[in-house]
Every structure is written in C-alpha cells, then in structure tokens.
C-alpha cells in the first residue's frame, strides 16, 4: 500500500478501569462468596470521541483465575465488566481496521480495586461510602507513515 509523506498521525485514547465494592446488603444472588468488587475495564475515545473508525476490535486478557480469560470485544463500547476479589494486570490488545495495515498494539493496565488514600480517616470514609476507584490513563496511538487510506480515515474526523 502507498504510504503518505507525513511521518505520523496520532489518535488519543483513554483506557483504564472503575471498580466498586459490592454492597453486602445487595449482593447479586449468583455472586461467588469471595467476590468483593465489581469492575469495568475499557478503552474509549477522549470525551467519548468515536474510536471504532480505526479500532476494529479489542482483546482483554484477564487473570488466569477467570473462566475464559481472553475476552474479544468486536464492537464499541470496548469494555469488559466482571466481579472478583483481586488486583492484577490486564493486557489490552488493540486490533486496527484493515485499511490501517498496522499490527496490533498491546497496552497494560493494572486493575485497581482499592483506593490509595494516605489519611486513615479519609480512607475509612471512602470504604464506608463504597466510593468507586478509578484508574484511567490518557494515551496516544501513533501511526507511523500511515497508508493513504488510514491517513484519510484519521484526518476526516
Ligand atoms: C492476587 N496476583 O493474588 C493477584 C491475583 C486475581 C484476581 C488476583 C478471580 C475471580 C474469579 C479474581 O478476582 N482474580 O474467581 O473468577 O491478588
């Protein structure tokens, strides 16, 4: 494929997780007893911008303690929601649209369930209120010497 003469194009994404402690009074009936949190890991555009025009699908690789740890998400929203008890690193593999001819790229996200709050009283309060724990990162996907088709795709937005 013909390449355009610009060195690179960049697309901004946001990825990470939000985790909430399960309310013991409102436990879903089928929740395993040792599962303390519900969480969602996701890849999205900044300010909810569309990313599906260049990302075809996203594979999330969970910890081996999960049944079917490889989760392929073929359509937006590119996210996986689960419950569990522990923190671990999630591999997030981005597959690009065919026009792009780029290889898949892998990101790593550490699933955070517990708040990092130094002040003990404040930490206790956060726990009591079951405050969601957010851990998100802004990143940019760099397409070096994009194909013409990809360049058009990225600049038409
Ligand atoms: C830890 N290294 O020991 C980590 C592993 C794994 C968390 C955490 C599985 C839930 C299920 C789950 O929460 N795994 O049983 O499906 O802290």
Automatic annotation (TrEMBL):
Residue ranges of every copy of the YEATS domain listed in the record: 3-157
Gene name of the encoded protein: YAF9
Segment forming the signal sequence: none
Protein name: Protein AF-9 homolog
Highest rank taxon of the organism: Eukaryota
Localization (cell): Nucleus
KW tRNA processing (keyword) present: no
Key words, A-Z: Coiled coil, Nucleus, Transcription, Transcription regulation
